[in-house]
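hey m, so remember when u said the tokens were messed up on ur end? i reran from scratch. heres the input so u can diff it against urs
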Amino acid sequence: MFQENLKDEIKNRLKISEIISKKITLNKKGENNFLALCPFHNEKTPSFSVQDDKGFYHCFGCGKHGDIFNFVMEIDNLDFKEALKYLSGQAGITYPNSINTSNLKPLKVLEEAKNFFIKRFYHNDGFAARKYLNQRNIDDELCKEFSIGYAPPRNSKPYLIEHLLTQGFSDDDIIKSGLAKKKNEIFFGYFHNRIIIPIISKNGNVVGFGGRVLDEGNPKYLNSPENEIFKKRNLLFGVCNLKRTQISKEGLILSEGYMDVISLYKHGFSSVASLGTSVSDNQIEQILNLSDKIFVVFDGDMAGKNATLRVFDKILPLLKLGKIFKFIFLPKGMDPEEFINKNGVLAFKNKLVEGYSITDMIWLMGLKIKKDNQPETIAKVWDFIRNKVRLISNNNLKIAIRDELEKRINQLRFKNKGLIFNSKKNNKLNLKLPNVGLKLRYKSILLFIIYSPELFFILEKEFKEIKFNDIQYENIKEEILKILFTNPNISSIDLINKLHAKGYSEHLDDFNFKNLFSRLLINEDELDTEKCKVLLKELIFMIKKSKIL
């Protein structure tokens, strides 16, 4: 009953558009109606409708439908209680602690366990753990900062479970804390002979532990099991330590694990980790709220590279204006600490500066699948790149990144065609054209582009800058621009056919190139791409020189 009343109060206080607009860009289509690209499937035409007066959303493309709670649960992968708590905060309603009273005892168990592990760390049986951390340059001050402890071997005394029972905690409290399970009236603890690192929530509560093995055993790292208290997708390791320091001016680093966060902290970098190589939408949202500049720095092995790519795909739909992501790939086999030890802090800072942007990442991922220069392969690359761009929800960012990638596509296109020219002075052709009339200059420029469409992408800037002082030729120029931008690989014949269909044949002498070359005193048999380029540049220069622009 309480939850239903709270739910109704939240709906009365919040417009559904207020919450949804925090995740995607909404375009107003009436007093209470909004339209957007659906965040739950890929689409080119907006079909995601949001209605404030009715308090629900509906996608006419994929069928997703619901209210403000359904949206938050779906988009952030939350359960109902988590969504209720989040929306309570958004609505300015204090979420009563009474809802979580069942978790109070387990939280106390975890706090007591943390103190137990710390004591064992400084005991004789913690010598190996202290030695290992010392070898990794993690000193006593850092150990205290992160409350590092040690879980003794399975048969050692005192035993954690026994200790907790003597402190008055029940079997049920211990099991709910995630420290042990019980089978046939026998407790089985999760952590033995491991360095123990408490996982502390942004509220300052110990909610679980991460344990690193000291020998060659597996798994190398072991986390507390998922339960009511410990949900990895909602947690970031190192958040509580950020509260005691300011986010460094370099920004916030998303790293791979506990040791990375601790080592980076030691060198003055602000860092958090996602408790594994998988990163949730909720974790990304938390990171975005912490800093405007985020660096993704995972280990320089194949697992780290693959994890980086998975994180990248998660980030694209959540990108926001004013938020900068950089992706850093460390040398093979290196983690951040190893890189800094070998190259120094300054080199690591430079590595951050040189990191790959969102645009760079899309571009490089596209080029990775480019095995040859066959048209089918090139088309596959362009299709891959454009599909990645479509994942970006923020429309302004999508346009900006798309435009930059289109420039790179055009540059690569004429590079693939072998149209990179030597610009050394001694290679100048110094061809001279007769002093022909202005209209013939216009016509000649257009016919040169039609004769060799790839020239446009070489001289794109020069071509776009000139303005013909004749409306008919200016219209033809604009039509050619439109065709080439939408069909960048078009052949000369296909371009002619399209212009012929538009009725431009007569104005361009029915595309009689031989007649054109004759009037310009050019031998067609000696004409190659380099000469075409030089001649076209000379024609453009002649128009500029005439000062009719």
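this time it looks ok to me. The first strand starts at residue 27 and ends at 28. if urs says something different then somethings off w ur setup not the seq
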